[in-house]
Every structure is written in structure tokens, then in C-alpha cells.
Amino acid sequence: MGHLANAQVEGVVLDYESNTPLVGAIVRSGKEYTATQPNGTFLINVQVGDSLEIKYLGYRTYHSIIKDRHVRVTLRTKSEVLDAVGVVALSVSEEEAKRIRSSITPVTVITSKELLTKAGNLNEILARQAGIQIRQTGGLGSVARINIRGLEGKRVQLFVNGNPLNTPDGSLGINDIPIQVIERIEVYKGSVPAWLGGDGLGSAVNIVVRDREVSYVDVNLVRQSFNTSRAGLILKKSFDKRGIEAGLGVFNTYSDNDYEMSVPDQENLKVVRDHDRFHSLLIGGGVKFSKLWFDEVEFEGAFMKTEKQIQGITRNIQKAESQGETLVGIMNLKKTGLLGGRLSMLYSLIRGKINVALIDTSSYSYNWDGTRTLSNYGKGELGIGPNMSDTEQSELRHRLNLNYSIDNTSSLNFNNTIRSSDFDPRDDLANEFAGKNLFNYPGRLFNTVSGLTLEKENKRKNFLLSAAVKYYFNHTEGYNTNIYVQGSPERINTNTHNLGYLVGLRYNFSEYLLAKAVHERAVRLPNNSELFGDGVLITPSIKLQPEVAYNYTAGLVYDRFFQGYRRVQAEVNGFYMNVDNLIQLAGNGLSVGYVNYAKAYILGADLELKSDLTPWLYSGLNLTYQRIVDNNEFIPGTKGVDNPTYKEDIPNIPQMFANLNVELHKDNLLIKRSRSRLIYDLAFTQEYDYGFALSVYDKFVIPSFLTHTVSVEQSFKKDKYTVTFEANNLTDQLVINNYNQPLPGRTFRLKLRCLFLGRQTHHDNHNR
């Protein structure tokens, strides 16, 4: 046996299905070996970083690198092929999630285990996390903005596999990414790692797409209230001997969004929405080669088509609608083992083309009581005239990431992104109505963001220091077009240069408890709509400066296993942000445009607790408190006029909210090779104002709400077939989370999933 008295790594080995200890499993690392005790535990004289092999008769062999002094391994029987797809992905995902959480940055990681069986959409899943709100203006397909620690919308950067997801018109959002394809979601709060390209004011969401190494077919069908349906099909084929993998996915979403609502500001008037239809079709495919000089060469393509009827809330929009088409091609390259194994490289090249059309030609405006009046301007419901636009936008992006290991305790990471965007708006009907060319002027945007990060650990690996610097360059070209300009508009070019930085540390008090703190100077570059306006009501602001935030955050993280099955996770963070140069829409009585003048500071804290209370009971709780305060001493745009809202809380942003999750799960409850789950989710948001209350007569209140969601999930034949039923907002609470715009009420969902697996094509090197 190994030298147990000097053991440096302890662990437990359990059966995956029952969580019962496996007695006598052989644990080996190099020349050291031992066997598990009656309670499934073992001690072995090895170091973190050594290899580990665990064998047990009738079970798949476990191979891994030791990354922690406490190891928990669950083994699956050889007859179960599911681990080739489901369990392998989950084990790798959980292991990667733990590594990400141990970085200097406060981060929430949502793994595929938490995603795949959900009947709801991605926005709802994100909204149940600490520090996160999803601010929606209506039903499925309406505008939805992610709010993280008081910053929302354009100020929260979105990524897919580290590549920014900032489509110029916002036509592709995070909720358009099918849950089926997601391996995990990383939500960075308070600072954004420099290895993530792009800009942002201290918060980011990175979606990592699943990469399964076997042939399989995955079918998802969802049917829910308000004539809503979602369907997804994934086909994957692996040719192991040739090192080739090919896949295809088709995803279709449709909704009438015909829910009943109380009309804002019109007492005792309820209506059923009848002009809110949404339809999207996403088709994607790819092929990957793994036996070339590069470790991986991948080519991907995607096409997305959307049709949206404009969802009016404060007004009854009946005719206006938009249509969009997006075509994207991607090349990904991966290479490790360069420079004697010290250097690894990731490279992405993305080419995209987006066409967006807005149709608004109605001769009438419509009231909620069913009556109609002539349009104020003769044509159009939305602006000051008719629109039949066709805007073409093209994108070319590149991302290069290089990671160099200086030694066993130090690494250097370089990340560079380049974005070149051209857009060509066309609206001859609007120009004819205006009597001049207002819309048909092209624009161009070019920017690059480079980040360099140095990380240094001590020899004991319990202290990490990280420092990063980021450089931002932004070039814009456009025209000063608005209805008040006489003659030919002026062509304007502008360049901006900015520096950002990040410094942080992590200290491990033990293998279970760590502390982290980080300070960042974050920068957000203005986007197309802010720079170029809309050609009519919103004038161009080509000389806009980037937004800047000074962010401070610190927290504690606890993560420990007890009794083999019981895991307790706890995290608490405090944060402070001082934000300057905020871009807001302002007017002078004749026109409106975006300007840099707002200032604010944000302070708060969030708490998250998770625990496996028993082998069959799990519970999680999170709580967030935040204040967003107006920091303008004088009214912006004036010379020394006192600001009446100075030091007042900025409205329309919730200050306190919480989520509770309880899950009961049991294997083989109904029949053998089945799994049953009962899930309860509670969400609470405290009352807050959607406008400044400058007197006792001002009442701009969004009421508090408490919602209950219950899900029942039943799988058969080792997760080959899964049925999920969900009742969201069970008590039909009035939910408003953006100004005074009510959201859909009680919603029922039924989800069917079928997973058909091919043979395993790679080594059985993960079973956890």
C-alpha cells in the first residue's frame, strides 16, 4: 500500500447513480497506490498536479490530473454509454467551473447540468442568479437587457466562446442562443478579465458552446402558454480515425405573445395583446478537424431569420414590424505545445452580414379601446413619418489569444480583438416623405482592443496576483444628418484612444476557503446607434467619448464536500463603482442626440448559498442589495445650475432582490434507469421607483413581486427520454421590471427531449 501516514491528497469514490461508497477501489498515481475504505475514502501520498487513476470492477476507469487536495470521484458502470456525452461534459464542466471560480474575479458559473433540463429560456435562468436582473419590455422577442450590479444593456458585454456578441442593431441577443448547445455560462461581476476581448463597464457574460466528442442526435420540443413553441434538433457525427467531426443544428421559435395585461396609466382597462407575434429560425453547422498541424481547425456557419411585430406597451402598435436576416461564418484555430510546450494559441476569424428592415406605413394610430385616429404625420405609428427601410450591415472580426507559461507559478496572456463594421442604410420612402435625403448615408466603425495579463502564484499555490492592462482604439466615420441640416451633410471622422487596467489578488486560507479582491478601470466604446443616430429624431454624435468606470470589489468563497455527497458552497461580495462619461439621450427642444455627461456611483453586496443537504435534497439561495446614485452636482449641460436629484437614487433599477431554489431528486423512483426531479424556484423583487420622486405628489412606483415556479422532470432509460412540466409564476403575480410595462403572467410549459447516442470515440478519461 502507499504511505498513508504521509498522505497529501484525500478523496472519496462513489457510485454515480446511488452516491454510495465504492469499497476496495484501486487508487493509483505513479508508484503510489491504495484502496478505498468502507466509507469510500482514501489517502495517498501524491502532490497536486500528479496524475490519478481509479479502477473498480465493472466500472469505467477514471483518469485525471489532481487539481485539489480533496478529490471527489463518481464512477459509472461500463454498461452506461451516457457518460460519453452527458456525464463527461458535466464532469469537465464542473471541474472547469471550479477553476473559474478560483480566479480573482467574482464570477457565477452556470453549468450544463443546470441548463439542459430547464423548460424556460436563457433570460429566465440568468435572472435567478445573484446580482443579475433581466429587464424586459414585453413578451418573447421583445427588448431584454441584462442588468448586472446596476449596469445594464450596452454596458454589459456579451461573449460567445470569448468573441464579443455585439451585433450592430442588437438583432442577435443572448436569448437567441439555444440552451441545447451551451456547455456553461460565465457571468463576470465587477471586472472583466483581459483575456476576454471587447469592452464593457465591469460586467460580462461569456457563453461557452458545448463540444461533445461522440455521434448523437438531440431533439427538444417545448410547448407553452400564449401559443408559444420552440423546437431544436442537433445532429452530430464523429469520424474518429480521420479526426473529423461534423454537426448541424436547426432551432425554431414562435410566439403569439397574446397575454392579457392591465394598460399602464389607464385605470381598470385590461386588454389581450394582439399584435406581438415573434418568429425566429436559426440554422447552424460546422466541421472540425483534429489531426492536422493545429490541434483543432473548425469552420462554422449560421443563418438566422427573425420576424417581429413591434410590441407596443404604452401605445397600441398595430401595423409596424421588423424583419432581419443574419449570416455568419467563423473559423477557429487552436494550437498547444508551442515553444517547448509553454505557448498555446487560440484564433478566431468571423465574417457576418446583417440585413434589417423596418416597415411602418400605417395611415392610422390605434388606441387600446379599439378606436383609431389618423396618424399625426399622415403615415407611420412610431416616428414622424413612414418607414420602409432596408439596412445592410457587414462585420469582420478577429480574435487572437496567446498564453505563455513562464514557469510553474507564472503565466502571461495576450488578447487582441479587431472589429470592422460597415453599414448602408436605405429608406427611399422616408426620404420621399421628408423631401430630402435623411437616411441613405453610409457609416463605418473600426476598433481594436488589446489586453496583456500577468499572473503570478507563490510556490504553495495559495496566493495569486494578477495584473492586466488594456488598450482601446476606436475610429468612426459618419455624416451629420438630421432634419435641421440644410444642404449636404458634413462628413465627420474621429479617433479615440483609451487605457484600462486591472489588478487583483486571491488568497486561499485553506483548500475550502479563499478571498479575492480586484480593482479595474473599465472602458466602454460607444456603439453604432449612439454614434450615428437614426437619421430623423436622433442626431449623430460622432465625437462621443467612451464611458469609464472605476470598479472595486472584494469577496469570500467557500466550497467543501462533507460525507462524500454533501457539498456546501457560499460566496459573499461587496462592490463599489464610480462611473463617468455615461452616454445618455438628451434634447435641446429641436432635436435629440446622445451626449457624455451623466455620472453615477454604485455600491452594494450580494450573497449566494448552495448546499446538497442530503443525497436527494439540494437548496440554493441568493440575495442582492444595490444602490445606484446620481453623482451630478449640477444639471448636465448647464453652467452651475444645481441638480435637484444630486445624491438621489437613480430610478428604474431595483435595489433589493432574492432567489430561492429547492430541488428533490431520486433515481429509479418509478422504474429502473429513471430519474425524477421536483424543482421549486422563488423570486422576489422589492418595490422601487421608475421615476424621480421630487415631491410627495410624484408616484412612480413599480410594485414588489413574489413569484413561484414549480418544475417536474422525469427521465427514462438513462436520460435518453426526458419530460419536463413547468408552471412559471404559479400565482399569476403582476410582474413589472422596466418602467411601467407589465410582463406575461402565469405560464405553463411542457418540454420533451430525446437523446440518441452513438458509440464512444475517445478514451474513457472522465467519469465524474
Description:
The structure is a single chain. This protein is mainly β. The protein has 2 domains: 1-77, Carboxypeptidase-like, regulatory domain (Immunoglobulin-like), CATH 2.60.40.1120; 207-757, Maltoporin, Chain A (Beta Barrel). The protein is 5% helix and 53% strand. It contains 6 helices and 45 strands. The chain is globular and about 85 Å long. Residues 1-6, 79-92 and 760-768 have low confidence and may be disordered.
Question: Which properties best describe this structure?
Answer:
mainly beta; about 5% helix; Beta-barrel_TonB_sf; Maltoporin, Chain A; about 775 residues; 2 domains; Cell envelope biogenesis protein TonB; disordered C terminus; Immunoglobulin-like; transport; 45 strands; plasmid; 22-stranded antiparallel β-barrel; 6 helices; five-stranded mixed beta sheet
Q: Catalogue the unreliable spans.
A: 1-6, 79-92, 760-768
Helix percent band:
under 10%
Shape assignment: globular
- The radius of gyration is 27 Å
Number of domains: 2
Number of E-state strands? 45
Question: Do you know the CATH architecture of the largest domain?
Answer: Beta Barrel
The biggest beta sheet reads: 22 strands, antiparallel, barrel
Which topology of the largest domain does CATH recognise? Answer: Maltoporin, Chain A
| CATH class group of the largest domain | Mainly Beta
Could you name the CATH homologous superfamily of the largest domain? TonB-dependent receptor, beta-barrel domain
Rounded to the nearest angstrom, the distance between the terminal CA atoms is 24 Å
Q: Which structural class should the secondary elements be placed in?
A: mainly beta
Strand content: over 45%
The total count of helices amounts to 6
- Kindly state the mean pLDDT as a whole number? 83
